[in-house]
Structures are given as structure tokens and as C-alpha cells.
Amino acid sequence: MRQDNLYKLTMRKIIIIGCPGAGKSVFARKLNQKLSFPLYYLDMIWHKPDKTTCSREVFDGKLREILEKDTWIIDGNYLRTLEMRLKEADTVFLLDYPIEVCLAGAMERIGRKREDLPFVETELDEEFRQWILDFSGDQLPVIYRLLKQYESGRETFVFRSREEADRFCDRM
């Protein structure tokens, strides 16, 4: 196995995926500090400050512009566009954490201004909570299928805990 710091040489186009509340944005910022690549938050593209969303066409157009760049870190699950991102990425990080960790992470950010979302969440609404609860049954099987389908030509890292992800970043 290669030493983790050698991965810095091959990483150019990185996606970070996983359940809401897992800490994708925190992990993305840590990678950004190590690599200094442009960092894009899909939530910042999709959501508007008034809590409405842009159209799929606008979102997809902005995403395509990002994918054309030489280097990037893209934070966000957005299953509908995952295949599009996987085709372009050379490195994938999946934060596959227990649901309890993700629920706690989502709760911790309530009321806090974040650079990865254009508004402050004031509550964990029931629909979003349920989406987190259903993530491992609804989304993860599709994610793993796509990761298997696009495994050739890219490095894929699956972390099962925040400590695992932190150790990886610390070794870079």
C-alpha cells in the first residue's frame, strides 16, 4: 500500500460523499488546507439564501463548469448527479458513518453559520431527519453500486468513522 502522502501527487479531482451530518464539509476543508484545490459545496449551488433552490438545469450547468476545471474538491452527495461527478473524479471519499453520528452531526450545526450553506438552519425538520434515517437503505446501495461501476481509474476511500478520516488527513 502506498503511503498516504503520496496520494497528494495523484489527487486532482476529488469528490466527498456521504450522509448529511457525517462531516463532509469539515473533511473537505481539511483536504483543501492540505491541497489548496478549489473547493465547491453543492449545497451552495443548489440552495439560495432564502431557502429556495435553483432549477436542475442551472445546477447541472454550474456543476459542468466546475467539472471542466483542472483541479477541484466537490463536497456533496446529490445522488442525481453522482455518476456525472464519478466519471470525472480521480479520487472519491465516502464517509459511511453510523446513522447516530450523522444525526448528531446534523443537530450540532443547527443555528450555526456555515460556509457550505447559504442560510442558517434553525431546526432539524422531520423530513430531513427522516432522509438521514433512510440514507443507509435508500442511498448507500446506489452509491456503492456506482462506486463499483466506476472503480477503474480512480482511488476510492471509505471511512467508517471521523477518526479514520482525521488520521488520513493528518498523515497527508
Provide a brief overview of the structure.
By secondary structure, the protein is an alpha/beta fold.
Provide the descriptors you would attach to this structure in a database record.
50% helix, Rossmann fold, alpha/beta, 5 strands
Q: What does this molecule look like?
A:
There is one protein chain. With 172 residues, this protein is of the alpha/beta class. The chain has one domain: 3-Layer(aba) Sandwich (Rossmann fold), CATH 3.40.50. Helix content is 50%, strand content 13%. It has helices spanning 4-10, 24-35, 42-46, 56-67, 82-88, 99-108, 126-138, 140-149, 162-171, and strands at 13-18, 39-41, 72-75, 91-95, 155-159. The protein has a five-stranded parallel beta sheet, with helices on both faces. The longest helix is centred in the last third of the chain and has 13 residues, at 126-138. The protein starts with a helix and ends with a helix.
Q: State the helical fraction.
A: 40-55%
Shape: globular
Task: Provide a count of the helices.
Answer: 9
Mean pLDDT: 93
The strand line-up of the biggest sheet is 2-3-1-4-5
- CATH-derived topology: Rossmann fold
- Distance separating the two termini: 14 Å
**Total number of distinct structural domains:** 1
Could you give the order of the helices and strands? Answer: HEHEHHEHEHHHEH
| CATH class descriptor name | Alpha Beta
List unreliable stretches of 5+ residues.
none
- CATH architecture identity: 3-Layer(aba) Sandwich
The name of the CATH superfamily reads P-loop containing nucleotide triphosphate hydrolases
Mind summarizing the main beta sheet?
5 strands, parallel
